[in-house]
Amino acid sequence: xxxxxxxxxxxxxxxxxxxxxxxxxxxxxxxxxxxxxxxxxxxxxxxxxxxxxxxxxxxxxxxxxxxxxxxxxxxxxxxxxxxxxxxxxxxxxxxxxxxxxxxxxxxxxxxxxxxxxxxxxxxxxxxxxxxxxxxxxxxxxxxxxxxxxxxxxxxxxxxxxxxxxxxxxxxxxxxxxxxxxxxxxxxxxxxxxxxxxxxxxxxxxxxxxxxxxxxxxxxxxxxxxxxxxxxxxxxxxxxxxxxxxxxxxxxxxxxxxxxxxxxxxxxxxxxxxxxxxxxxxxxxxxxxxxxxxxxxxxxxxxxxxxxxxxxxxxxxxxxxxxxxxxxxxxxxxxxxxxxxxxxxxxxxxxxxxxxxxxxxxxxxxxxxxxxxxxxxxxxxxxxxxxxxxxxxxxxxxxxxxxxxxxxxxxxxxxxxxxxxxxxxxxxxxxxxxxxxxxxxxxxxxxxxxxxxxxxxxxxxxxxxxxxxxxxxxxxxxxxxxxxxxxxxxxxxxxxxxxxxxxxxxxxxxxxxxxxxxxxxxxxxxxxxxxxxxxxxxxxxxxxxxxxxxxxxxxxxxxxxxxxxxxxxxxxxxxxxxxxxxxxxxxxxxxxxxxxxxxxxxxxxxxxxxxxxxxxxxxxxxxxxxxxxxxxxxxxxxxxxxxxxxxxxxxxxxxxxxxxxxxxxxxxxxxxxxxxxxxxxxxxxxxxxxxxxxxxxxxxxxxxxxxxxxxxxxxxxxxx
Length: 719
Hints:
Blueprint: H1 11-16, H2 29-43, H3 53-62, H4 76-88, H5 96-106, H6 120-132, H7 136-147, E1 151-153, H8 155-160, E2 172-176, H9 181-197, E3 200-204, H10 225-238, E4 249-254, H11 260-265, E5 281-286, H12 288-295, E6 299-303, H13 305-312, H14 321-330, E7 336-340, H15 341-355, E8 359-362, H16 363-368, E9 393-394, E10 400-402, E11 407-409, E12 411-415, H17 416-419, H18 425-442, H19 449-458, E13 462-466, H20 468-474, H21 482-510, H22 521-524, H23 541-546, H24 555-568, H25 583-587, E14 601-606, E15 610-615, H26 635-646, E16 657-660, H27 678-690, E17 695-696, E18 699-702, E19 708-709
Parallel strand pairs: 2-3, 3-4, 4-5, 5-8, 12-13, 16-18
Antiparallel strand pairs: 1-12, 2-11, 6-7, 8-17, 9-10, 14-15, 18-19
Pfam families: Ribonuc_red_lgC, Ribonuc_red_lgN, RNR_N
GO cellular component, one term: ribonucleoside-diphosphate reductase complex
Protein name: Ribonucleoside-diphosphate reductase
């Protein structure tokens, strides 16, 4: 038998029986039967066996499956010892979906695809050895965190660590384009290179001159942003990893850019094929001023990037529109056009109903809470990466006159369910920080110098979380309740504290801080001011009970940390970000990210296989009432939860809003009819803005025919 010739397997049929209730009861035990059958019929007979881990590693190196360099950093006896430790933890998959996803997507297979070469324990071993870079103590700590599923490296890191033939460890990238042909050409090349590597690419087009702007004195010569969007879409379609996956990218544009209506129109179903973008994602960058003008039902002016750069000597994205709006309106040297703010707001809502796009970046909110010197101008493919960037200047020979800084995303996630039973919460987070530090230190994207430069200066990563709804339900807490919101705040406060502790420790250990640390709010101490009160300590009895065995830093602890940071600095410019989760949340047997589940029994359409059913982790008669679908939930509750986490996250959180096309009665007090309207989306966006939300990812709409508009199909940037 081999994986290509599986016959008479029963696990798919057993799994499908979950969806056929008997006497009104969900047949959850059928999933356990499917899991057992999967190992008996698929995994065990098709796994290549070895007498020892040393024999296996030697084979994998000889056959060019595994890199030898990281193995050579360790004594073989230690590797045997670590492998024994991992196996002694008695890891067990908890669902058929978890095991199926791991062996189908992550386990190393023979070149002919006939046999498995790795178990979960093996993949954990290679991750730990790789990320520890020769340090035996750190390797054991990392192995301990991953095998107990307290820590989950991002998909590209977890999948590729240690492999001889692999992609990059990073998840996605951000680049910005400046208003000249050299930058456009270089950015298209960068998109090709980055898509080839495997990550999703975010691109800012806000600096480009609008359609009709002059070029070298010729009036009305510029074509605007839409043709450039088409160039990027074609680039991603071409650079598709030998056809294995569609290249993925998102383009961002400021809402005060004169091409904003044309930009949004490219995603409409009835758009002309010459301008329509099918696979490119859209995002809008929204300054505070837009919300003010829309709220007051006033006109808004769109400002020429060409005029602004000539007048101020800065690219459009680096002008504070909110601060300078009236000045720009009054300046006759700034070309401008006028539209109704609410008309644009309605256009955004219409498109979100139709396609789920555009993503929304509340750029002033992001910059207001940004502790780093510089300006955030855009985000990434999943809207959670918010880092300062510096534009590059390129001459006609395609040489960098000024090498700016762009961004690579080095991601990982905590598993909330398992973290809350960690024997040492702080040590767990510190270990994860070490693992992610290796990823950022070892990432060298030389094909795109601005990415390489930015990463080498900033040493950033984004540690997030998954499984919030799973944890709350298993604790019999309603998602969005006061207890849920406070729990979220305390959990992310702890993540913030311990990543700061370890980043400071690494800076002291190496004598290195991130670039421009001395200009940051960490250096002057102002970042820590809000923590020098008790406002983030647990106050509700239920939340106090949940954290009763976990260290909570006091005001004095924060003050001590402030003093250490001011003295020795931080190694990492950015540390926290909450990405969406793809298949990896199934392997962890928890709900994705920190948003609610959409189905108690999730139905997944797998290629060539058919439907697979995944019951929510911990689903039982007792927990069913607490596993309410996001589509039946007031989205303001979701926003409240994300706002609580946002308070402690130095970057962003990938927030998806879920609505039905026919909204159930009683969810929203302003609704007089069930049909979802553009007004509903406008109200929710404004609510999110007022709660301090930095970004909104997809708007997902569940339609009458069971389809999902705006369902996330991108696996490039997810954890």
